[in-house]
């Protein structure tokens, strides 16, 4: 079950199956994708905070659902589309991991723009123990987020990282007691600037094209806020 609410200018999206450690069934993937694809609405706040209910962030795919798959490739593609919706959302997505993130839970976090963890957070890709691997875009995003050597070690060994090791390897950027506070910190920024920064840093085109787009976006923001910049310079 996926719950959404707006609180203090931040949209809060909660994975809410605490008894199952927020494991995701096909219907949950569908709902989560709809939530993030619906972020085009003008009423959507510029920052989204993704969290899990209870004592885990997300245990990944529901193992009962995986065992009964008729079309595993379609299931993988469904998870990939959810991760893509998170990554491509116009809203800045801050993922707060409190407790365990496993398999698909790690992959959802990898798709977010900012990942933060509490001291009790842990991360693992246990698929290798079952003869599988994370196929919701994990093999694409993991070496972008972590150094390739750390990514290979993490995925091939199936070992669990604690919060500090996740920070050291780049899997999360901070370890904090209250991840929601980071979402509030980001939300204090000007919404147009937040959107422009996300678009530029998420741009996967060649460097020359990206730099040209960066300059154009800066000029657009400058022109839109020229009066405020002028006032600041006069102070």
Automatic annotation (TrEMBL):
<dbReference type="InterPro" id="IPR001753">
    <property type="entry name" value="Enoyl-CoA_hydra/iso"/>
</dbReference>
<protein>
    <submittedName>
        <fullName>Enoyl-CoA hydratase</fullName>
    </submittedName>
</protein>
<dbReference type="Pfam" id="PF00378">
    <property type="entry name" value="ECH_1"/>
</dbReference>
<comment type="similarity">
    <text>Belongs to the enoyl-CoA hydratase/isomerase family.</text>
</comment>
<dbReference type="InterPro" id="IPR029045">
    <property type="entry name" value="ClpP/crotonase-like_dom_sf"/>
</dbReference>
């Amino acid at each position: 079950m996926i719950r959404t609410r707006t609180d203090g200018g931040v949209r809060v999206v909660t994975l809410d199956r605490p008894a199952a450690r927020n494991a995701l069934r096909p219907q949950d993937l569908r709902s989560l994708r709809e939530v993030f694809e619906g972020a085009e609405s003008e009423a959507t706040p510029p920052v989204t905070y993704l969290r899990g209910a209870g004592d885990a962030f997300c245990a990944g795919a529901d193992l009962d659902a995986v065992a009964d798959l008729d079309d595993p490739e379609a299931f993988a593609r469904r998870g990939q589309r959810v991760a893509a919706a998170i990554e491509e959302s116009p809203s800045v997505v801050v993922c707060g991991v409190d407790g365990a993130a496993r398999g698909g839970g790690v992959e959802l976090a990898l798709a977010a723009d900012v990942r933060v963890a509490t001291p009790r957070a842990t991360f693992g890709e246990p698929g290798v123990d079952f003869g599988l691997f994370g196929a919701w875009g994990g093999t694409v995003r993991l070496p972008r987020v972590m150094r390739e050597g750390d990514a290979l070690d993490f995925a091939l060994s199936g070992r669990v990282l604690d919060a500090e090791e996740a920070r050291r390897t780049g899997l999360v950027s901070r370890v904090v007691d209250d991840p929601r506070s980071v979402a509030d910190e980001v939300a204090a920024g000007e919404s147009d600037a937040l959107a422009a920064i996300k678009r530029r840093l998420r741009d996967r085109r060649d460097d020359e094209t990206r730099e040209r787009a960066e300059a154009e976006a800066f000029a657009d923001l400058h022109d839109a806020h020229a009066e405020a910049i002028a006032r600041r310079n006069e102070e």
